Amino acid sequence: MSTAKSQVTLCTNIVRYERLLELSKAQANAAVSFQQHTLSKLAENYDGYISERVGGRLMVTFSSPDAAMAAALSLLKAIEDEPFYVRIGMHFGDTSGVGQHVSGLGVVIATELEELASPDHIVISDALRQQLSSLPHVKIYPLGERFLPGVPEPVVAHRVERV
């Protein structure tokens, strides 16, 4: 039996993955493979765990908020010359489970924040922003309170851009 613990959930999704799959299964598979390979290396480097892969969506959990942000920024840098875009949502909060079986409100919030992100952007919760110790290469823009499906209280969101 696992207990809930606070950690960062990073959810990333290839933009218009379903459409890419319709146009070219080979290109869609290549995009997913590149994203998964890159995130696997980043998870290893930043002490994270890939917890889910469905279609063009990957979920990674981190115990360190700063490491999670560094991994997200590194992912955007790694794909800047690739022929696809990703959206990233991140939240610091309670999750339950371990390894590839992580669930809970923290996962729901990260997934919904990913849906708010523009291509090649990151949207984070205020809970994560408050946990970050430094952000030397980013600008944070407030998005205000958001009512997210499956989340009982509004979540304050911020858009993060690399500078």
TrEMBL record:
The UniProt GO MF terms for this protein read: cyclase activity; phosphorus-oxygen lyase activity
* Name under which the protein is recorded: Guanylate cyclase domain-containing protein
Source organism of this protein record = Aliidiomarina haloalkalitolerans
